[in-house]
Specification:
Oligomer: single chain
Order of helices and strands: EEEHEEEEEEEHE
Strand content: 35-45%
Helix content: 10-25%
Structural class: mainly beta
């Protein structure tokens, strides 16, 4: 299933090639202060593919906090965080913000809370390698 998404102004757009059950897409609401304040609700599946197109890279902020093992990609024009990446052993892994999906039936989303307090860095990176999107490409629009 192909899911299109973008920030509010369209500077950051993506195509998520979802390979898992399209009727039950996990939507994890992280309880960290960044996600709570920005309304980020994230999904991923390790067998899926993510293609991100950025119209104007100068209008994308990258933000890291805490362990600095994840980078939030935020459009500076409209303020929307579209995806998060993590570089692990030379490979980019990602999650996407379900609130940025376009023309999508939200009834397919299975919402659940997510809490990562107390998770050490090694455990965190191993979880991302198991669960995040492992086929990620970020570039300019075609």
């Amino acid at each position: 299933m192909l899911i299109a998404g973008k920030c509010h102004c369209g500077n950051i757009a993506f195509e998520l090639h979802w390979t898992a059950d399209p009727n039950v897409i996990p939507a994890r609401s992280c309880d960290c202060t960044f996600c709570t304040k920005h309304g980020g609700v994230w999904t991923s599946h390790p067998g899926s593919r993510l293609r991100v197109a950025i119209a104007d890279p100068a209008r994308v902020a990258r933000y890291e906090f805490g362990t600095r093992t994840a980078t939030f990609h935020i459009c500076t024009q409209c303020g929307v965080p579209t995806h998060v990446t993590s570089e692990i052993e030379g490979r980019t892994y990602a999650v996407v913000n379900v609130n940025t999906f376009e023309n999508f039936d939200a009834a397919s989303l299975l919402h659940s809370p997510a809490r990562f307090d107390g998770e050490d860095v090694a455990t965190r990176l191993a979880r991302r390698q198991r669960n995040w999107i492992a086929d990620v490409r970020i570039g300019s629009p075609r």
